[in-house]
TrEMBL record:
<dbReference type="InterPro" id="IPR017926">
    <property type="entry name" value="GATASE"/>
</dbReference>
<feature type="domain" description="Glutamine amidotransferase">
    <location>
        <begin position="49"/>
        <end position="191"/>
    </location>
</feature>
<dbReference type="InterPro" id="IPR044992">
    <property type="entry name" value="ChyE-like"/>
</dbReference>
<dbReference type="Pfam" id="PF00117">
    <property type="entry name" value="GATase"/>
</dbReference>
<protein>
    <submittedName>
        <fullName>GMP synthase [glutamine-hydrolyzing]</fullName>
        <ecNumber>6.3.5.2</ecNumber>
    </submittedName>
</protein>
<dbReference type="GO" id="GO:0005829">
    <property type="term" value="C:cytosol"/>
</dbReference>
<dbReference type="InterPro" id="IPR029062">
    <property type="entry name" value="Class_I_gatase-like"/>
</dbReference>
<keyword id="KW-0436">Ligase</keyword>
<dbReference type="GO" id="GO:0003922">
    <property type="term" value="F:GMP synthase (glutamine-hydrolyzing) activity"/>
</dbReference>
Length: 254
């Protein structure tokens, strides 16, 4: 069975490792089933996404709409852009989380800017009618909580994208391109342990007022984001070594 691939770009080891562990936990994966490539550490010019069961693009402290970018950020964006082009051209399985909204959105003709940024919190996510019938979202309630924390979001959707989930403060919380390209603004992989790690690591990075860190931790602790984790597991089940059509039918049958 082919493994899944995580394309990560967090230079901070604590946040990077917790992201990887959370995907293993909620995807029901063993470490040899999820290959992690840390893009900030070097180029991946020869990587072929078709070698993997599916590609997960992790979150990042990088922001696509930044005016001033480091050389590392520019290289990561360029490498991810080439990989995303290939994934979408071949309609390969992809789950792009948070930073993926900026990468995929900007690469495919959408508008990504700071209009709908959200401080670190648990957002109220609602499925659209299209999301309610999407096979990857089968089993999710119509409304659920999920952790968010981002400085940019999609303001104008890419052409041919389908909105699958929304929220009161961010109109595009999830969309699909093609049949198998999924992009989320919220973090389905993030549980309490991982969100607290990121709060501590990125306390001075502008996702919230650093002086209010204790209050931020308190509000995320009171949230129940367990339903959101279903999305990670559903992605793994749908694309793990089985015909897409057969697994779609099993998920829809519930």
């Amino acid at each position: 069975m082919r493994p899944f691939l995580l394309l990560a770009s967090r230079a901070e080891d604590a946040a990077a490792d917790e992201e990887y562990r959370s995907l293993l936990r909620h995807g029901g994966l063993h470490p040899d089933e999820l290959v992690r490539v840390r893009l900030e550490a070097g180029s991946v010019a020869d990587l072929d996404p078709a070698d993997y069961a599916g590609v997960i693009i992790g979150g990042s402290p990088f922001t696509v709409s930044d005016r001033h970018k480091s050389s590392v950020q520019r290289r990561v964006e360029a490498d991810l852009g080439v990989i995303v082009d290939e994934i979408l051209r071949r309609d390969l399985p992809m789950l792009a989380l948070c930073y993926g909204v900026g990468i995929v959105g900007a690469r495919t003709g959408g508008v990504v800017d700071a209009t709908y940024g959200e401080e670190t919190s648990a957002a109220e996510i609602r499925l659209t009618p299209e999301g309610a019938v999407d096979p990857l979202l089968a089993g999710l309630p119509a409304g659920f909580q999920a952790y968010v924390g981002h400085k940019e979001a999609v303001t104008v959707l890419p052409p041919r994208a389908t909105v699958l989930a929304t929220s009161p403060t961010c109109p595009v919380q999830m969309y699909r391109l093609g049949r198998h390209g999924y992009v989320t603004q919220f973090h389905p992989e993030m549980d309490l342990a991982s969100v607290i790690t990121r709060i501590e690591v990125y306390r001075d990075s502008g996702y919230f007022d650093a002086a209010e860190m204790a209050a931020v931790i308190d509000r995320v602790t009171r949230a129940d984001v367990s339903a959101a984790h279903h999305l990670v597991r559903a992605f793994v089940l749908r694309y793990r070594g089985a015909a897409v059509q057969r697994v779609d039918a099993e998920l829809l049958a519930g």
